[in-house]
Amino acid sequence: MPRVSKQTMIGRVHSTDMLQRSVLIAILSLLPGCVNALRPYNEPSRETLWVISSTPSSYRVKINNHTTVPVPRDGRVAFDVPRLTRGCATYFLGIKVKDASPYDLPAIEIIEGERTVKRLSLNDIRKLPRDEQGYTVVKIE
């Protein structure tokens, strides 16, 4: 049996490792690299809006396409936001390419007659200014 030097053995082990890695990479590249991960539900909350308009009582607030609450003359309206549809984060090859949170879903609509004049998400409401009583100020022109 011929003697094999250490250098040759290391070269063979290295090429075997490289071959195994190449085969593994080739197999993994055939598998889907896209994963969807469900986001947690939003916490149900109580929201308060102050609809500022010349005729605030002509508006209604529609929540998640279900409940409709009329806006009183003073424009101050309170309503409950239920648990919304879960969002989904999409990853491609381990990199997040889309993140749909239930807090970004425009689930609150301000309606006049049959026309939607504003759509708001819970995150949109958090970004709007509040008055001294804690109502989120929504101006409609």
What is shown here, in short?
This protein has 141 residues and is α+β, with helices and mostly antiparallel strands. It has 2 helices and 10 strands, in the order αβββββββββαβ.
> Strand-residue fraction?
35-45%
Specify the number of helices: 2
- If strands are numbered along the chain, what order do they take across the biggest sheet? 4-3-8-9
Report the major sheet: 4 strands, antiparallel
SSE sequence, one letter per element: HEEEEEEEEEHE
Task: Report the helical percentage.
Answer: 10-25%
Q: Could you say how many structural domains there are in total?
A: 2
Structural notes for this entry:
The chain has 141 residues and is α+β, with helices and mostly antiparallel strands. The chain folds into two domains: 6-31; 37-139, no CATH class. The chain has two helices and ten strands; from the N terminus they run H-E-E-E-E-E-E-E-E-E-H-E. The strands form three sheets. A four-stranded antiparallel β-sheet has the order 4-3-8-9. A three-stranded antiparallel β-sheet has the order 1-6-7, with no helix packed on it. Strand 8 (108-112) and strand 9 form a beta hairpin. The longest helix is centred in the N-terminal third of the chain and has 25 residues, at 6-30. The protein is rod-shaped, with a radius of gyration of 28 Å. It starts with 5 loop residues before the first helix and ends with a strand. The mean pLDDT is 85.
Question: Keywords for this structure?
Answer:
three-stranded antiparallel sheet, 2 domains, alpha+beta, four-stranded antiparallel sheet, 141 residues, rod-shaped
